[in-house]
Structure formats: structure tokens, C-alpha cells
Design a protein that fits this description.
mainly beta, 3 helices, 9-stranded antiparallel sheet, 223 residues, 4-stranded antiparallel sheet
């Protein structure tokens, strides 16, 4: 015990820094390395992003207890959250808010009776690596917010559901890589207290398939 006390005294500066970093990541901002292809072409494997933990709520550090609401999440936001299925941290696009009635038919969404518009995506898009099947990229207009989504017609996936009404205090999340994402179609709605932050920018990106070389065009890029 005396050895531990001595070690703490001799390293109190480092311990204070470590505690400060833990508090910062728990309550203010956290960084996240994208581990999978579920958000292609928006987020790539190896992207390092920062999640603003104060975007929506102030929480008691190291808990999901909300102390104060700052703003409401809106459709189209890219968010990090704790999966209600297994507790793993995920990053997806928030597609529907409490009270929305959502339906998907053949991967085309209808929200509150309004069918979303889908057009072929004409710009360059990064496709899912190590997948040899067909990948089709569309521009999805999420009630005024445009983003690219990937569909894989040959892959087994849930392409239709609903209509369902999003419960109070919960949200519906989908991956932009629609047929390669474990999202609300599989894990259910996500309670607000499980949302851990909003992602608006890629800090930097490393291409693990190419000797972890930096993708310079993605450094500090807005989403």
C-alpha cells in the first residue's frame, strides 16, 4: 500500500492528466476510428472522426444520465451511439426522429407519407472494399438533406419494413451502406440517452489496405 501511495505521489501530474483526458472523452468530445464499411461512401474504414458529446446533451461523466438537453438530434445527422443490442459503439446516420412514421420498400424510404427521392450518384464514390458483387450508388434526398447511399442488389439484406412509428425518446438509425450495415433494422430503435455524440468532420484517415498511408484528401474534411 505504501508503494502505491508513493507511486501516486511521484506521478500525480501524469495521473491528473490521464483523469482529465478520460473526463474530456466521456463528457466533451471523443474520437472514433471507423472499423467497418457500414457507412460507405460517407465514412471509410480507417477514418478518424471526433464525436461532439455536447451536441445534444450534457451527461454525467462515464454514464448515460442526461443532466441537460442542448439540442434535439435531427434527420440526417451522423451520430455515434451505444448499440442497444450488445453495447458496442456504432456510427450511423439518424434517419427518423420521435413520432415519424417510416416505411422502406425495396430500399426506398417513405417518411411521414413523403417518398424520398433517389437519383443516380454522378460524382466519384468510394465503394466497399473486398466486395466483388455489384454496388450501386444513389443520391438520397432525406427531406431536404442529400447524401450518397450504396445498395448491393446481390447481398441478402432487409430491404423492406414497416410502416413503423418511432417511439417517443427514440430514433431510427441506418447505415449509408444499406446492405452492409447492422442498424435499426436489426438492433431496433435507439434511445436518446444512448446517443454519445455528433460527427461532422473527418480528422484524418489512414488506408489500412495500402500500408496505412494517409488519405490526404480526407484530412479535416466536412461530412
Amino acid at each position: 500500500m505504501s508503494y502505491i501511495k508513493k507511486l501516486c505521489r511521484e506521478n500525480k501530474g501524469f495521473l491528473a492528466f490521464l483523469l482529465g483526458m478520460l473526463l474530456f472523452r466521456s463528457a466533451i468530445a471523443d474520437w472514433y476510428v471507423v472499423p467497418s464499411g457500414s457507412m460507405y461512401p460517407t465514412l471509410l474504414i480507417g477514418d478518424h472522426v471526433m464525436a461532439n458529446r455536447l451536441a445534444y446533451d450534457v451527461k454525467l461523466p462515464f454514464t448515460d444520465v442526461i443532466l441537460r438537453h442542448n439540442a434535439d438530434p435531427v434527420r440526417g445527422d451522423i451520430v455515434t451511439f451505444t448499440s442497444p443490442a450488445d453495447g458496442v459503439r456504432l456510427v450511423k446516420r439518424l434517419v427518423a426522429v420521435p413520432g415519424d412514421v417510416v416505411e422502406m420498400r425495396d430500399e426506398r424510404l417513405t417518411i411521414n407519407g413523403v417518398a424520398l427521392e433517389y437519383q443516380p450518384f454522378k460524382a466519384h464514390a468510394e465503394l466497399t472494399p473486398d466486395y466483388t458483387g455489384q454496388q450501386v450508388v444513389f443520391n438520397e434526398n432525406l427531406l431536404g438533406k442529400n447524401h450518397a447511399v450504396i445498395q448491393m442488389p446481390e447481398r441478402i439484406s432487409i430491404r423492406s419494413f414497416g410502416p413503423v412509428k418511432v417511439p417517443d425518446g427514440q430514433y431510427l438509425m441506418l447505415g449509408d451502406n444499406r446492405d452492409n450495415s447492422a442498424d435499426s433494422r436489426y438492433i431496433g430503435f435507439v434511445k436518446r440517452e444512448l446517443i454519445t455524440g455528433q460527427v461532422t468532420r473527418v480528422l484524418y484517415s489512414l488506408d489500412e489496405k495500402n500500408y496505412y498511408l494517409p488519405r490526404l484528401n480526407r484530412f479535416a474534411s466536412a461530412l
